[in-house]
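Job type: complex structure
Entries:
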Amino acid sequence: MASNKKYWKSVEELNKNSSIVAKLEEKEFVSEMTADEFLGDKESLEESSTSRRDFLKYVGFSTAAASLAACEGPVRKSIPYVVKPEEITPGIANHYASTIADGYDFANVLVKTREGRPILVMPNKLANGSTNARVQASVLSLYDSLRLKGPKVNSNNSSWSDVNTQIKATLAELKDSGEKIVLLTGTLASPSTEKLISEFKAVYGNVEHVQYDALSESATLDAFEEVYGKRALPNYDFSNAKMIVSIGADFLADWQGGYEKSYVEGRNVSAGKMSRHIQVEANMSLTGSNADKRIVLKPSEQIYALINLYNAVTGESLPSKATPRDAAISNAAKQLKKSGRYGVVVTGIQNKNAQLISLALNAYLKSEVIDIYAVRYTRQGNDTAVDLLLSEMNSGKVGAIITYNTNPVYTLADSAAFVEGLKKVKLSVAFASSENETASISQYTLPIPHYLEAWGDVQIKEGSYSLTQPTINPLFDTKQFQDCLLSWSGNEESYYNYLKNFWNTEVLQGTSWNQALHNGVFTPSELVVVELIANSIDLVKSANVLLSSVHTGGFELTLYPSTAIGDGQQANNPWLQELPDPLTRACWDNYLLISQADATEQGFSNPVRDNGAIDGQYANITVNGVVLENVPVLIQPGQAKGSLGLAVGYGKTKAMKTDMQVGVNAYTLAKDFKNVQVASIENIGGAHKFACEQLQHTIAGRYEILKEVSFKDYSNSNLDPKKSWNQITKVSLKHEEVEVNSVNLWDDQDRSIGHHFNLSIDLTACTGCGACVIACHAENNVPVVGKHEVRVGRDMHWLRIDRYYSSELDAGSEARENNTNSTSDSVDDYYNLETPEAENPQVSFQPLMCQHCNHAPCETVCPVAATSHGRQGQNQMAYNRCVGTRYCANNCPYRVRRFNWFKYNDNSEFDFNMNDDYGKMVLNPDVVVRSRGVMEKCSFCIQSTQAVILKAKREGRKVAPSEFNDSCACSAACSTGAMVFGDVNESNDDIVGLKEDKRAYRLLEFIGTDNNVLYQVKVRNTEEA
Amino acid sequence: MSSHYEAPIREPLVLGEKSYHDITVDIARPIEGKANKNWYIAFTISLIAFIWGIGCISYTIGTGIGVWGLNKNIGWAWDITNFVWWVGIGHAGTLISAVLLLFRQRWRMAINRSAEAMTIFAVFQAGLFPIIHMGRPWNGYWVMPIPNQFGTLWVNFNSPLLWDVFAISTYLSVSLVFWWTGLLPDFAMLRDRAVKPFQKKIYALLSFGWSGRAKDWQRFEEVSLVLAGLATPLVLSVHTIVSMDFATSINPGWHSTIFPPYFVAGAIFSGFAMVQTLLGIMRKVTNLENYITRLHVEYMNMVIMFTGGIVAVAYATEFFIAWYTGSPYENFTYMSVGAATGPYGWAFWSLILFNILIPQLLWIRKFRRSFIISFLISIAINIGMWFERFDIIAIVLSKGHLPSTWARFEPTFVDIGIFIGTIGFFGVLFLLYARTFPVIAQAEVKSILKLSGENYKKLRDGNHE
């Protein structure tokens, strides 16, 4: 049924004759749009030559152009300066003197910045500064992406104004109720901060400042205080020592901060002097490996040895016990007596009475090596005070605890007590740079700036003041501890102004602040004479107490700071994690060191896998009922039988990238802050994967690689070095024996024109500390590759320090003669040469980088000429040209070339600083980041040598003698001056003399590569009494 | 080329009652007929291995050389081992077709075609490795001395790797031309027999319009002779140059003046062993027992014994010289007490066993003339020669000048996968070849049929009685 209904829209529609309706029916759209109108004038359109084909062309082109424009390259955010800062010129580095004082490492440094970013930390030579690997690497810790980025309250983000108000309120409450406020800090050694704390005390009344060192020197401080009435560490100047006896003191590494500089000054063989150094120790330490004689004794026996030494020198008879090496000890005593005031005894035994005896012995010798006036303030921790604090916290006597620069939850053996105590405290504030173990359980977590972003002052030793200055705007929303204290004390002044006023009034003695800031250090011209009392000590009583404190039975475990990680503050620093230990050459790990004899008894071994990686079993260590599980075991030649070693600073999990969470926390075993514990171990098997960079321990009879001579032979002017201890390999030329370097198959270029660089490495002065390795990483953007890659032999170190063990033969000519005749090569001989003497080997270090051969084997074999020789002696590597055949590396007798097996930047498989927007800020803009598949190696820091040349050119002068000395990052970082870099065509350069030195030799000279790196024969003072 | 008299005491080279037509039919059978089941099985396995190899190569190029087992001290291992191994295998073909041609050795006629095919396919495999072992293979063309936009940037003519590029590309092109020249009359034969138009067209193209006129044959003989003259020095030069990758370097164990002759001998040794292996299978599969006879096998075994002897003497020399220098740096070369007792002792002893001891069995005539024992020995030699290159590369690099740089090498699945892949690729090529190419130079074999054919010999010998 169809409907005939009609729908209408308007009444007009009903009118059939309406013109409007008719019009609408014709044209639906009201406004007309003709093509002519649309395209414009019809006439011109007809005249125009745009045909259909043209139209399609335009469409095609514009589509192509649009799509091409859409395919733009990755956008790099680079924002130019609107107003150029006065001091920043892009491309030009600025240097600022500053000071690191993180409570563990103290050093005067020079910071290099580029475009406002610190990229390198070097020793401040104006302040006679020296840096170790950790100080060198500290610049990367600035760019740690896991740093705290803003204040937190109970782990929730907050703001500084809120936090300050809340804390101030709580502090005011506590002040009113008279509850105790405790500032728990690491060693500060900052005069201004100490004053600030006293002002804070004045405001809040019941305030106590407790200093706590993770690696305590409390015993030494106590002993010194008891004798001389001042809580400080004695200073040593080893440069004038003739005889050094160290009993368990690793003074070249971390014991109270490096003494390597003065030690090496005292062993300047070219100046005809060389101290003799006897080291008594259980672990194979860096110091022990540099010693002329190493006496292996367990920690308990070291105590007897110290007393026996005292008795032998003074003729007294303090109660003691015999040790297996008493003959050697009495021999040492004889030499010590003979050296008189040039002799010194240092001891690392963490026992007040032992330190008292050592102080007494030095006093008896009237030693001039020990300095009791210019004392050091680099360790101020007080174990008793920390113990007291813990018990007070747990008994609810503490109202507030403010921690700064310390991480007791991680470093205390009894951290559970601290955690429990913290719960009973009304206010807990942690100043920390990252959300570490302590910060994460404190109520308030306040981010502090890195030292490169902060102001500060440090008194490293009496009579020397240092300044810390910021070298970059704070990266994150951080505030200095001092600024907060000022604000909480009601002082609205900034810490910068406070510091400046403090220095102007109390330190500078009227001299210029700007000058002090420029130098980074200030030494007052008028020294305040220190009054010291000298208490007499009942040494017999001390010795008795000491003897009764000796615990034996089981293994004696020494907890030590490793060269790379130290106390563990910078454990999240990939450079340090990948720095191999100088002795074990393992990295990314801590491990239980055990002697070969004990390992055999306990069933431990370190099998080498087919891919060249070392494995080991796990042990459970039990100390006083505390069990540390799954500790990998590494056999250490030279470890005292019955003793063990374990590095602290590992096993951190908070604020650590996953790859960096390695090792076990050895602090849990440091009961009563003691670094020596009696332990029992249990072999639980398993296979731990070590990342070790060197498999072969000995030099395998290839003596000319690492030449050694005794000081006696060296000083013997009747002995011709070229015929005895620094022989050059002879070859036959026309049936006559000639020195190998007189034969040359090549038409040499004239190398006497322009600059020609050489690097000299003094094996006597090199302590093996590894600072150069880190400096090289920082300067040259050397990638970090991680534990697995190191394990399979793919570390990228451009500079490495080889370590060889040898038997304790009389180094020098006699040994050499004995060995050169032993050309018989029965199978037994091979293995005798390959296996190190396990009980007490000698150690030699050999830093090795590209030797920059004038006749480089790598250069001839590259098919695309990617590596070629520069006019200035450098063997250059053109990364862009490299196709990666690796032939150059195979043909390098020194094996210093490193291949980019993978892409190491912007790759989540290698989640280290180059995969991180913050971490990348440390990259040196002068050095390219290498791509995958290319070879790389040491360049003699060509970017720096060129910069020196350009600077001289711009200033219209010749390069000054020795101006190149600090060009190479390694030689600039070397505290002991073992590495000297220079221009051999500049007759006044230091390098010229070194090149002609009778100790100079080239590595593997018989190959005829004509290296530009020289080695200076290692000298040992082997002469007994 | 062929003389008209052959001593009756010589064994015949063609067995059975063969006529010219029989030969044609025999050679054309695998091409014209259908493939059997064994062919399909072998082809599938090869193809899978090949694809697996492509996967491993793609993974390497996509991720980095780090997926191999190499490290900072051992920059080459399986890659260059495989390269030298394949190049070595590629040596027999040219020797058989060129040198034996010049020496008028007629027995080569039955085997030269396949030996040359093997050469070419082996050189393909060998050529892969120098490219994929590069860190940045996409820039591999930089090793060519071609004009470029980098200004005066040129290749380094000092580098043995560059010499390799020239040596191998020359060898490949000359071998290819030589092989193809020999193939022309045979392709023409197939063309003439082909019934399907498509097949006919293809073989017509491949035979370059061979018409079989006397002039064709004359030019054919001339070109063969000229090419043989050109190819003969290549037999010596290619592996000489490959050996210089090692000999001109300074590693103890590599830096050795006897490498060039010793490598050439080793290459022929391994090449003949590979020919022995392949023909041992092929004569069965394609029913060519009448053409590849005991006599052929024995002759090849004699070459193997001779070159194997040279190789053994070279080993002994290397061992002696390493010891005689008295230099501690030579204590661990690949031929030394250190190598024999060190971590790579197993590789050292594999080399001694497979390359020196087992081939000595060929002194016994019975073994020399046994197909199965020859086949097994040839496989042992293939393995032994692989170990020789592995030992030279890996053992030497693992014990460099400085003891601190001593290292070890373990292959990853990618190292192994790529090697298997090249074997698969080789298999694919060879199997396709066996189905489409005349695997025996029938034109040449026909030229000696009346001379060395069994029935003709019998007829002749009968006349003497």
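Summary: The first strand of chain A starts at residue 93 and ends at 101. Residues 829 and 900 of chain A are 38 Å apart (CA to CA).
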